[in-house]
Structures are given as structure tokens and as C-alpha cells.
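re: ur question from yesterday

yeah so i grabbed the chain u mentioned. its 296 aa long if i counted rite. heres the sequnce exactly as i have it in my notes:
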Amino acid sequence: AYPAQVVPVAVKSLNYNSTEVMWKTVEGASGYKIYHKKATDKSYKLLGTALGKNNVRYIDSNTECGVDYCYTIKAFRTQGESDYYGPNSRVIKGKSIPSAPVVKVSNLSYDSLNISWNKVNGADGYRIYYKNSNDTKWSRLTTFDNGDLTSFFQSSLTTGKKYTYTVRAYHKVDNSKCWGAYDNTGASGTPVTTAPKLTSLKSINYKTNRINWNSVAGASGYKIYRKTQNTSWAGIATIHDKSVLSYDDETASCGVKYTYTVRAYRKVNNKNIYGKYSETGLSITSVPETPIISLS
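ran it thru and got these C-alpha cells back, copy pasting raw so excuse formatting
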């Protein structure tokens, strides 16, 4: 008996010059013949043979970027020295394009974000798109004619505002660009102040600990947090003067180990937008002052 007609599933682009053809299994088949042609050509050519009933994928590894191809598949059954072919499947179409870059967004400072992505096979350049939190459509940000570029930072952003980005690669074909796929969800980031570097923590006396830190670009002020081994972070003071870079905690208990951290904030539209902070912090145990002994 002749095999049944193949039911094609899809043609998927793998990268700028290859596609993957997929179809459903045909019971009793010994294998499949895959044929292809450009959509503008008249006749099909044999692309390859997939041996085995369950071998239902085939990679076309020599396609032209952005060109539509037509595929048809037929199953065959081998009996003795003869092959018996079923009818051709219906035609399915597909084309190869550059794959979608995987995009990441990281915070650089209170007004800038870094957009990075993986290098795409066959890419001759990239275009970055963005949208704000209330946007439904992507807007073009910039285009780079450099296939080796994998990052870009955007500055002059608003602190605390969410921005979403996606990246699309292109492959040059003669004098035109073959545009690739892109992640329609994108990757998001919100510029905030960076974590202050904690420079020192020391016990002044049995109930006072002093913490010092470096200034943070764009900060309007700082908030100091404290915790013990049995508690979580709790704010103990807010400094509204950005030039003040130390704080004396005068509510410490003698003999208790405390951990401190500092978080910068930037005031935007009369609202404090808090940034990153050291989750490790610095630790100390309050102790009495060392007495000064004078012998006479």
C-alpha cells in the first residue's frame, strides 16, 4: 500500500540563511522526500531525504535571506528493493531571516540605562526600538551598521520611569536590508540612583555607631537602614542634604550586632525615587569607649 499524504506543520526560520521544515508522522512510512523552490520559480527541486517514520524535521541550510520558499513533502515506504510514494503534501511557505536577539537592560545611573544583546549570526547591523510604559507601539531609537556591536547606553532619561527596549538585526542583501525577527515583549529597565559605596562603620561609644559612604551622582539625599540578626531592614533616618555623607546612630544597644546600609534617592516631581543599595551592608557591635589610663 502507498503511504498517506503528509500533513505539513510549519516552516520556521533558524537564522538568516536556513529554515526548518516540519510535518506530521505518517504511519508505515520508511522516510520522506522534501522538495523546495523559490516562490518565483516554476519547478521544485529535491532538497533532501529524511529517513525513518519519526524523522519529521528537515533543515534547509542554503536559503537566501528574506526570500519566500515553497516546500512540499511526500512519504515513501520501502518494500524489498522498491520505494512506494504517497502524494505530495500541500505547499507551505517560509523564509529565513536573522534570529531575534535576546535583550537585557541594566541600570547605569539615575538617568541612563544599558541595553545589551547577543550577537546574531549573519547580522550586519542592528536597530534598537523603545517604548514608554503607556505606549502600545515601538518607536525607533537608533540604527547601527555594525554587526559586532552588542550594547548601547541611553542617557538623559527620567529617574523612576520605566523604559522597554527591543533589538532587531538585519543582513545585507545587495543594496537592501533583510530585517530579522524581534522580541515583541522586549526587556525593561528603570533608571535609579546607584548603590552608595559604604566606606566605614565604627563604634563611637556604647550606644552610637557612625557609618560613612561615598556620594552618588544625581542623589538628592540618603536614607539609612539598620537590621539585627533577628530583624529585617528598617529605615532609621533620612538625610535631605546630599552633601552629608555620614550618620551617627545614637539608638544602638551595647553588645548588639547591627548591620547598616544606605540608599540614595532622587526627588522627581516632589516624590522621592529610591535607588539601589548594598544588600550585604556593614556590620558592627556597639561597645563602650576604651578608657584612657594615666599612670602617675
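noticed a couple things. The longest strand covers residues 257-268. also The mean pLDDT is 95.
anyway ttyl
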